[in-house]
């Protein structure tokens, strides 16, 4: 408890709370179509492949929104960018409530829901901006635990859709956005870690191997989380013939684990190292994915395995974003947005892969298998890349260097990184 009080005194807790709430509710909005997929499928008689694509649209759109929003945050401030984004989300949800009534309009609404997916880079950078490097892993883990918004979506959207119709859920969701807007306006303060840099300096991570390496890892951890979380309601509904509300509740059990362990992943990484934590996470994800793919007949065992898989994915998200501010201390928002963009783009492939596997082979197994193989390749890449990382900008295992060590690492020529 004393350590946590020390952590709170080191930063600005009201801003951290505002960032968490902002991320939590925008994340819930982002995954609304996935949470309501069984209802939408029934309304328009969609095939498995069409459901997979429909679920992937908000993920892909959100990924594309992250980088421009992160760049905007560098120029007008993270708090202002968050307020602008939430205003746009409210307008998008009002459109959904009044005008969405066909399959093509659902796809268009998925693009608009992507606006909510752009909150990632802003929320984590805003929440952690007041904290020193040794606490950034925990601060980003707390702000990033806002991905628990998935829990809110899958828990509340199905019963509300049953009672009032799935289009009405968009309108109800618009009302919920008023809370984070008020909290952000009143409680948050723009962090002091702002550097006025050129566009080329802002986007430097796009031209470095480390940026692409981080993005590939994030395809597994966050892409896996968001992709599977969006598709699980459909998977449970189709595979085990549960009700739509039960499918949401089962998905909630898995996503809750992933949200809770994001903080744990950041905390472990501050102490054990982000590279060490990610290595363990990837091994665990590979094992659970393979077993999940083979356990398509037992609802209880499958649910437990998904809970374990999501726990690992959540810890991996926290671990990766313990490393981001160590590698890009002056452009954390833009680097985080770029990494999040590519990671979420990868996540958009998962619902499509699951839908195609079911459509062509009448089983979801090959979707799970493909994701597990990709995770194994990324694990090998991580173990190779970490040799150089721990010689330049991180301590052994991926822990934060001392201030002098960090400064020294970033005075080296870019080609040496």
Structural class: mainly alpha
- The radius of gyration over CA amounts to 20 Å
Can you name the CATH architecture?
Up-down Bundle
Label the overall shape: globular
Counting H and I runs of at least 4 residues, what is the number of helices? 21
CATH fold-level assignment: Growth Hormone, Chain: A
What is the averaged pLDDT score? 89
The tally of structural domains comes to 1
First-residue to last-residue Cα separation: 38 Å
Question: Can you put this structure into words, describing what you see?
Answer:
This protein has 21 helices and no strands. The chain is mainly alpha-helical. α5 runs antiparallel to α14 (209-240), α14 (209-240) runs parallel beside α18 (332-347) and α16 packs antiparallel against α17. Helices cover 82% and strands 0% of the residues. It has one domain (13-187, 201-410): MFS general substrate transporter like domains (Growth Hormone, Chain: A, Up-down Bundle), CATH 1.20.1250. The protein has helices spanning 2-9, 13-30, 32-35, 37-44, 48-76, 78-99, 103-117, 119-128, 133-144, 149-164, 166-176, 178-187, 199-202, 209-240, 244-272, 274-294, 299-327, 332-347, 349-361, 365-392, 403-409.
Task: Set down the secondary structure blueprint.
Blueprint: H1 2-9, H2 13-30, H3 32-35, H4 37-44, H5 48-76, H6 78-99, H7 103-117, H8 119-128, H9 133-144, H10 149-164, H11 166-176, H12 178-187, H13 199-202, H14 209-240, H15 244-272, H16 274-294, H17 299-327, H18 332-347, H19 349-361, H20 365-392, H21 403-409
Helix pairs in contact: 2-7, 2-8, 2-9, 2-10, 2-12, 5-6, 5-7, 5-8, 5-14, 5-18, 5-19, 6-7, 6-8, 6-11, 6-12, 8-9, 8-18, 9-15, 9-17, 10-11, 10-15, 14-15, 14-17, 14-18, 14-19, 14-20, 15-16, 15-17, 16-17, 16-20, 19-20
């Amino acid at each position: 408890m004393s350590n946590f009080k020390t952590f709170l005194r080191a930063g600005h807790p009201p801003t951290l709370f505002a960032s968490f709430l902002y991320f939590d509710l925008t994340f819930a909005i982002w995954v609304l179509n996935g949470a309501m997929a069984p209802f939408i499928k029934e309304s328009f008689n969609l095939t498995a492949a069409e459901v997979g694509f429909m679920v992937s649209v908000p993920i892909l759109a959100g990924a594309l929104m992250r980088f421009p929003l992160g760049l905007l945050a560098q120029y007008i401030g993270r708090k202002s960018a968050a307020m602008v984004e939430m205003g746009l989300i409210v307008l998008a949800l009002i459109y959904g409530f009044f005008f969405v009534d066909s399959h093509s309009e659902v796809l268009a609404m998925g693009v608009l829901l992507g606006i909510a997916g752009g909150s990632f880079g802003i929320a984590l950078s805003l929440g952690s901006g007041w904290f020193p490097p040794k606490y950034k892993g925990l601060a980003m883990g707390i702000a990033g635990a806002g991905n628990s918004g998935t829990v809110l979506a899958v828990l509340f959207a199905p019963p509300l859709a049953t009672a009032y119709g799935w289009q009405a859920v968009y309108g109800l969701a618009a009302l919920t956005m008023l809370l984070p807007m008020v909290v952000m306006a009143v409680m948050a303060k723009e962090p002091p870690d702002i550097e006025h840099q050129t566009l080329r300096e802002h986007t430097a991570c796009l031209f470095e191997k480390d940026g692409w390496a981080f993005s590939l890892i994030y395809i597994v951890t966050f892409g896996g989380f968001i992709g599977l979380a969006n598709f699980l309601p459909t998977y449970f509904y189709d595979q085990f013939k549960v009700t739509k509300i039960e499918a949401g509740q089962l998905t909630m059990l898995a996503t809750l684990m992933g949200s809770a362990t994001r903080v744990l992943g950041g905390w472990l990484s501050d102490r054990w190292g982000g590279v060490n934590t990610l290595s363990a996470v990837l091994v665990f994800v590979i094992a659970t994915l393979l077993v999940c793919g083979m356990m398509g007949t037992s609802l209880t065992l499958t649910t437990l395995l998904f809970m374990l898989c999501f726990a690992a994915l959540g810890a991996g998200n926290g671990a990766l974003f313990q490393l981001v501010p160590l590698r890009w201390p002056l452009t954390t928002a833009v680097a985080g947005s770029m990494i999040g963009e590519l990671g979420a783009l990868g996540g958009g492939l998962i619902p499509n892969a699951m839908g195609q596997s079911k459509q062509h082979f009448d089983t979801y197994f090959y979707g799970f298998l493909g994701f597990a193989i990709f995770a194994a390749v990324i694990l090998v890449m991580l173990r190779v890349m970490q040799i150089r990382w721990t010689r330049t900008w991180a301590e052994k295992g991926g822990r934060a260097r001392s201030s002098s060590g960090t400064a020294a690492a970033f005075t080296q020529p870019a080609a040496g990184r």
